[in-house]
Structure formats: structure tokens, C-alpha cells
Amino acid sequence: MRKSRFSEAQIVGVIKESEAGTSTAELCRRHGISTTTFYKWKSKFGGMDVSDVAKMRALEDENRRLKRIVADQVLHIDALKIIAEGNVARAVCLIWARLVGSQLLGVCLSAGRRSAALPL
Predict the structure, then answer these.
(1) Do 40 and 92 fall into the same domain?
(2) Which H, E and C letters describe the chain, residue by residue?
(3) Which of 28-32, 53-57, 74-78, 92-96 has the lowest mean pLDDT?
(4) Domains of the chain: total
(5) Do both 62 and 104 map to the same domain?
(6) Domain interval for residue 37
(7) Which one of 3, 45, 79, 112 is least enclosed by Cβ atoms within 10 Å?
């Protein structure tokens, strides 16, 4: 994800200026942002302090990390189910596709019950 040119404190400051009565057009021109950006910021950060924004970012990062962990666990569970069915080659292909990239996942899933050869 691209890093913003503006810090959390600057974004909150722009929103507070707007709440103080400065017109949106003047505010956007002065800070060099579009009105679309301003309204996105306002919908996301409106009514927050800098500390609240920092807490929200930390929670978003933790949520992203936990989602990745859950996705990996689901993959491992699926591989174990496939191994329990007796299709070890397909399970290895599934795990290998996850490590290399998701474009190979379709090859592994389409292998079905027949023996899946690992793409080299």
C-alpha cells in the first residue's frame, strides 16, 4: 500500500480546520489535495484525535496479520483433509502453489482425484 504524503496529525489537522469553518475548496487548495481525498479522510477520520487514529492504524495492522494467520491455517487444514483422502500429490501441489503464488492454485484444484503432477 502506498504511504500517504500526510501524517496522521496533518490529516486530523485538516479535518479540524474544516470543522472550524474554513471552506472545503479553500482548504483543499491550500493543502494541495482534491476534494475527493478530503471527503475520504473526513469519512474515515472525522471526529477522531491523533491518538485515536494511531490506535485505529495499529488495530488495522493487527487485523491484517491475524487474517493472514487464519488464511494459512485454513490452507493447512485443507491440505490435511486432502492427505486424509489419500491424495498426497494434490496436497503438496496446493501447499507449493501457496508458497510460489496463487496463479498455480487453479492447476492444483483442477487436478481433482487424479494424480496431480507438480509443475516445475
Answers:
(1) no
(2) CCCCCCCHHHHHHHHHHHHHCCCHHHHHHHHCCCHHHHHHHHHHHCCCCHHHHHHHHHHHHHHHHHHHHHHHHHHHHHHHHHHHHCCHHHHHHHHHHHHHCHHHHHHHHHCCCCCCCCCC
(3) 92-96
(4) 2
(5) yes
(6) 1-48
(7) 3
